[in-house]
Inverse folding.
């Protein structure tokens, strides 16, 4: 007997081993401890065969089988195979992505008792809270548990931050809290669906039981989540599990609570913020069939499901669904593969669908479902461009926008300002000589963070104190150029001293739980001015926002990437979609120096769908995706020479094995050539059809490690790249 084992290492294919002398009968999907070079690694049995290409005496014996039963079912193994082939990525690393860290490390795959907690009768008494006046963490935890008398999944408590486990243990010691079984409360009733929603739900329900791909194309606030919930309920009623993928940022406790309130059955959550043990338990509950709904971020796509029935990918246009390093896969695209393998429907939802998915609808591969109107009483917001050419600006705000803000605030509205740049200012400049603070490791400027007096590079993380003087001429007249959210917050706090301002960006939400706290302040109406980067743009339901101001959309108009206009349109539409989501109507003001820009005009006058249709026509004319297929070979090194040399060698090899329709373009330096102290270059491969691209890659990729310059660079391959950086 020969075990073909996938080992977590950057080599392609599987490795052959003799089975261990004793232990369970080896089967595919079981973990196995193997010697690998001088190391011992945890691999996964891919197949069990009876022959090897290696001579008998070279075969090494596996140390031990780690699982009594396979932990990965055949369908997940098949999905990993498919992904390894399609993305030309080592199978062992693909499978490592599929497994929770605890299992990769060889820990036991044993389901524990549910990690649910609630207050005891004593804990619910007011005296309990009083007694904790000096233990803030325990007090906060108790307050949280008070809100959910039926019990709380420990996985949800992580956002309390700090050492909440310790606080929980203390509450248990005091007799205030206890472990409980997950409750199965009566699900809250759904609102009556409107006819568009009904229609969408009917189509999805009809599709249950077979593979179909459906694009739920619904404007912001149209009630897509309600459609998911109805479909999930129908799927549950058939005794089936569902997997729901969301971008990281969309997976807020609020969303989880909404799902939990509304769905019968057990819901588990899988995302990178979980402790390993929690992640493992959720994963095992999915695989054993104990969990009914799995909601998670992109890597949750590989979760085993005992009785799968439905896959949903929310915000399917979101870049966060694409992994941008290591194993570069797109969870949306793989979800389609998995749904087909499982014979279950896939629902992709978005207010701003990707051009890829719209193209698939045009081709008849996906069914296009529309929710053209907002649900309930909410009306679409009214959008205007503000021409700011020659206008005085204060921290990037024009007078007109400021005036509208005052009016909305006076009328008890809430204002959301969008500025996609964090920090105080993107440039620190010497007024005497023109010197600017640049990152020593990147072709980029350092961002000035005034509050903690640091300069930070947003590309590599390099940071230093803000200098007192110019590094060139010693002048102390250093000034900021441009503005970021920190500066905007400062100006607004000074300008509106009585109004609470909530800033939501990567800096203000670094602490665990901070994001939720800020959003709570926004939702409760305590904070009346919200400002932030794209973190604020995504998915949040902020019912009282009446005015949305987009401070600067001009950057998006001139991006180097051919996807820049698509991304700009998605961002504007999503940000604008935060306005007027409840009874009160919304207004959106977009500041621009290019009010006549055809893309902006088209988007504003005709809306995202029309914009997308025109963009598709342009892509077709230019032969760009989705009308062609790309792969990007990247290389980097401490010196500029080797990456180009390596890619040149790759190109020569590629030209030998490729068909004439495939174009090899480059090597060229990456748009930002130096990053984190390394020079980067890229070679773009473009083909009119997938097959010729993959034929080329099949021939080329195995050669790459053997190219003369390969040892002098780090290289990676990105199939269907989403960013050309
Ligand atoms: P989306 O996911 O498309 O952004 P949601 O499902 O979050 O939209 O719905 C937006 C708002 O409209 C929510 O407050 C939701 O409760 C409400 N809503 C959705 N469907 C209906 C309906 N049929 N009737 C009344 N309100 C609805
Ligand atoms: Zn100077
Ligand atoms: Zn840098």
């Amino acid at each position: 007997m020969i075990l073909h084992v996938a080992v977590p290492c950057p080599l392609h294919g599987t490795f052959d081993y003799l089975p261990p002398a004793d232990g369970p009968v080896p089967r595919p999907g079981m973990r196995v401890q193997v010697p690998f070079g001088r190391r011992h690694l945890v691999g996964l049995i891919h197949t069990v065969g009876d022959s090897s290409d290696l001579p008998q005496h070279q075969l090494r014996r596996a140390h031990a089988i780690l699982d009594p039963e396979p932990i990965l079912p055949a369908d997940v193994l098949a999905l990993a195979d498919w992904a390894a082939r399609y993305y030309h990525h080592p199978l062992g690393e693909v499978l490592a992505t599929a497994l929770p860290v605890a299992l990769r490390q060889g820990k036991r795959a044993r389901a524990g008792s549910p990690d649910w907690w609630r207050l005891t009768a004593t804990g619910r008494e007011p005296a309990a809270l009083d007694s904790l006046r000096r233990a803030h963490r325990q007090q906060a935890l108790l307050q949280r548990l008070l809100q959910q008398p039926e019990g709380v999944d420990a996985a949800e408590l992580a956002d309390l931050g700090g050492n909440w486990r310790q606080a929980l243990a203390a509450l248990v010691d005091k007799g205030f809290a206890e472990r409980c079984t997950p409750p199965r409360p009566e699900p809250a009733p759904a609102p009556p669906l409107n006819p568009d929603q009904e229609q969408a739900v009917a189509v999805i329900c009809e599709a249950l039981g077979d593979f179909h791909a459906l694009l739920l194309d619904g404007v912001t606030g149209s009630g897509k989540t309600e459609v998911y919930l109805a479909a999930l309920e129908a799927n549950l009623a058939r005794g089936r599990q569902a997997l729901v993928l969301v971008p990281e940022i969309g997976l807020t406790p609020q969303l989880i609570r909404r799902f939990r309130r509304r769905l019968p059955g057990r819901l588990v959550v899988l995302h990178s913020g979980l402790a390993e043990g929690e992640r493992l338990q959720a994963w095992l509950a999915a695989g054993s069939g104990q969990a009914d709904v799995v909601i998670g971020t992109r890597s949750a796509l590989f979760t085993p499901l005992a009785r799968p029935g439905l896959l949903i990918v929310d915000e399917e246009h979101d870049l966060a669904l694409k992994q941008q390093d290591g194993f570069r896969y797109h969870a949306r695209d793989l979800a389609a593969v998995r749904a087909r393998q499982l014979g279950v429907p896939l629902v992709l939802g978005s207010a701003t669908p990707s051009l890829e998915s719209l193209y698939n609808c045009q081709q008849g591969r996906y069914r296009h479902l529309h929710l053209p109107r907002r649900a309930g009483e909410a009306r679409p917001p009214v959008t205007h461009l503000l021409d700011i050419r020659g206008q005085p600006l204060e921290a990037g705000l024009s007078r007109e926008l400021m005036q509208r803000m005052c009016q909305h605030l006076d009328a008890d509205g809430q204002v959301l300002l969008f500025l996609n740049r964090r920090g105080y200012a993107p440039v620190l400049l010497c007024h005497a000589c023109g010197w600017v603070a640049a990152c020593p490791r990147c072709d980029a400027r350092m961002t000035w963070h005034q509050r903690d007096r640091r300069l930070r590079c947003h590309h590599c993380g390099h940071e230093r104190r803000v200098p007192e003087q110019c590094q060139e001429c010693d002048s102390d007249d250093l000034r900021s150029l441009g503005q970021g959210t920190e500066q905007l917050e400062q100006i607004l706090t000074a300008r509106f001293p009585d109004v609470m301002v909530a800033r939501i960006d990567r800096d203000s939400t670094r602490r665990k739980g901070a994001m939720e706290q800020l959003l709570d302040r926004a939702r409760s109406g305590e904070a009346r001015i919200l400002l932030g980067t794209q973190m604020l743009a995504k998915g949040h339901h902020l019912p009282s926002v009446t005015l949305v101001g987009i401070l600067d959309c001009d950057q998006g108009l001139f991006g180097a990437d051919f996807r820049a206009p698509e991304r700009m349109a998605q961002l504007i539409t999503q940000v604008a979609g935060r306005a007027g989501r409840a009874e009160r109507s919304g207004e959106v003001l977009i500041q621009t120096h290019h009010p006549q820009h055809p893309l902006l005009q088209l988007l504003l006058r005709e809306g995202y769908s029309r914009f997308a249709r025109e963009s598709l026509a342009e892509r077709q004319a230019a032969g760009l995706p989705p009308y062609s297929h790309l792969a990007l070979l990247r290389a980097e090194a401490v010196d500029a020479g080797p990456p180009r040399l390596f890619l040149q060698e790759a190109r020569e090899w590629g030209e030998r094995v490729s068909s004439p329709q495939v174009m090899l373009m480059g090597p060229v330096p990456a748009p930002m050539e130096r990053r984190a102290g390394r020079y980067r270059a890229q070679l773009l491969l473009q083909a009119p059809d997938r097959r010729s691209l993959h034929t080329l890659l099949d021939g080329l990729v195995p050669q790459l490690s053997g190219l003369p310059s390969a040892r002098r660079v780090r290289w990676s391959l990105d199939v269907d790249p989403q960013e050309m950086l």
